[in-house]
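#struct-help
A.M.: can someone run this one for me? Single chain, 203 residues.
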Amino acid sequence: MSGQIAHEKRKQEILEKALDVFIEEGYEDTTFQKIAERCGITRTILYLYFDNKKQIFAESLKRFLSSLETEIAVVAHNQSVRCDAKIIKIGEMVVDACERESKLLSVVMDYLLRLKASGGNPDERVRRRTVRMRHILADIVIEGKRLGEFSESSSVKGTVEMFFALVEAAVFRLVVLGRKDAAGLQEALSPFVRSMQGATASV
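D.P.: on it. Structure tokens below:
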């Protein structure tokens, strides 16, 4: 058991150092050798933990998203909080996470652009990575409609798409425009959520 713990600890250390290499070099110029050198190990040792740089990058991204999804799930399952407040709170959390991990997002952007240039489908890749988060948000809207907090005409798909448009705007501001924060984007959800409530109030 202790050997497994040590293995996982070393794996996490590699992921952290590898991320610095991806940030400094960009996805394309990052090599297995550069990652090994940054970690102070040989390529042979690195192969004990990962098969290639693509796997390392995927694991780094998965770790970020899994942590964020866990935090979001806690908010989503809090029965003492209204559904409208949950959506706004989750929006704030995601934008804050984007600000904290802007360097990682710059590597993601680089990877997606190269994927598109090579004929890949970046939209499909992003949706696959965020499917659990989309389901959590959809469940909140459905629950809000069931409880009468949202109008029956409120669109589940529309709300989820609006939310991810917010996330994409945050990434654009932070990575492409180079801003230090995405101030103001969290507030964009408030009028949208109020419109969902307003329809209920007018019935």
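A.M.: thanks! The chain has ten helices and no strands.
D.P.: also worth noting: The chain has two domains: 1-51, 58-202.
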